[in-house]
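Predict structure. Chain length: 419.
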Amino acid sequence: MRLSAIARLETLKIPQWLSTEPSRSHATFDRTYVLLAISMYMIGLIMVASSSMPVAERLFNDPFHFVERHLIYICLSLGVAVVTLNIPMSLWQKHSGHLLLLGVFLLVVVLIIGRTVNGSTRWIVVGPITIQAAEPAKLFFFCYLSAYLVRRREEVMENVKGFAKPLIVFGVLGALLLMQPDLGTIIVMFVTTFGLLFLAGAKLWQFACVSAVGISLLSALAYFSPYRWARVTGFLDPWQDPFGSGYQLTQSLMAYGRGEILGQGLGNSIQKLEYLPEAHTDFVMAVVAEEFGFIGVSVILILSMSLVIKALLLGRSAVQKEKYFEGFFAYAIGIWISFQAAVNVGASAGIVPTKGLTMPLLSYGGSSMIIMTISVVILMRIDHEMRVQSIQATSSKSSKKNKKTSKKIIKTINNEEGE
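Prediction complete.
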C-alpha cells in the first residue's frame, strides 16, 4: 500500500507544484521594446551618416563628424537606459514634484547662460556636453502630471479647479519656453496634457472651453510674430517664395517627389548635398523619402506606430489593474511620441508648418535621443513591474493550492498505512 502511494506522489509531480519560483518560460520584460528601439537606432545612424556627410565635410573637414557624435549619443543613451531600468516607478511618483522643479530650473538657466543658435536660446553648454533644456522638461512635466492625476483624479473629474491646476503649471512652463522661443515644444506639451486629462476622465465641456482659448492663444502667437507667420504662410504656399520663406519646404518636397515608391537608393540623395537645410536633424525623413521612397517612410512609421500602440495598451492595462500613475505615465509617453513623430513627418511633407521637432529615436540630437530612450525604458519598467506582480500573484495562488493538495495526499497516505 505504501509503494502505491509513493507511485501516486511521483505521478502527481508534487515538487514542481510546490515550487514558489516562477516558471522560466515567463519573461519578466517585453523584448519588443528593445527590438523597436534598436531598429530605430540603427536606421537613424544610417540616415544621419547618409544625410550629414556633405555639411560635416564643409564645416569640420570631417565627413564622419556627426556620425561619430550620433554613435556616442546612442552609447550614452544605452548607459542611461541601464540606470533608468533599475529605478522603481514608485520613486518616479514620489519625486515627481522635485523633477518638475528641476525642469523649471533648467528652463530658467537656459535663458541666462544658454547658447543661441539661429535666434533661439535653447541649449545649455557644460564642457563637451550640450543639453537642450526643453527635452527633460517635457518628460518631468508629464511625470508630474501623471502623479497629480493620481492624487486629484476625482477633483479633475468633478470640478474646474482640479482641471485648471495642471494648466497653470503648463502655463508657467509655456511662458519660459516662449522666451527661448520654442513654440513647437509648447504645442507638443499642450496636446499631450489635454490627451492625458481626457483619458483621466475630465468633462468634455471643459475641453471645449480650454481648447478654444488655447487655439486662440497659439493663433495669436503665430499671427503677431513675423517669423512664425512667415512659416505659416510659407507652409500654405511654399512655391510662392521658393528661395525665401518657402525654401526649406520646397527642397523637402522635391526630396519626397524624387523618392517615389522605392527611392533612389542609399546615398543617392541630391537634396542632402546642402540644398536641404537641417537634413540630418528636423528633415531627416525627407532624405529617407528620397533614398528609400514610400516603402522606407512606411517602415519607419510602422515602427513608431508599433511603439505608440504598445505604450497606449500598456497604459490601459495598468489603469485596469489600478496602477494609475504607471498607466497615466504610459499614456503620456504614447501621446507624446505619436504627436511629435506626426509633426516631424508632417512638417517635412508639407502637411503642417515647420516646428523644429526631431523624429523620436531617429534624428540627430543628443538630448532628444537620451530623453526618448528614457521614455521607452520607463515603458519597459512599467511592463516589468506588472509582469512580476502577476507572476507573484500566480505563484502565491499556486502555492496555497499546492499546500492543500499536499495535505490531502499526506492524509491519504496516512490512512492507507493505517489500513
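Summary: The CA atoms of residues 65 and 192 lie 35 Å apart.
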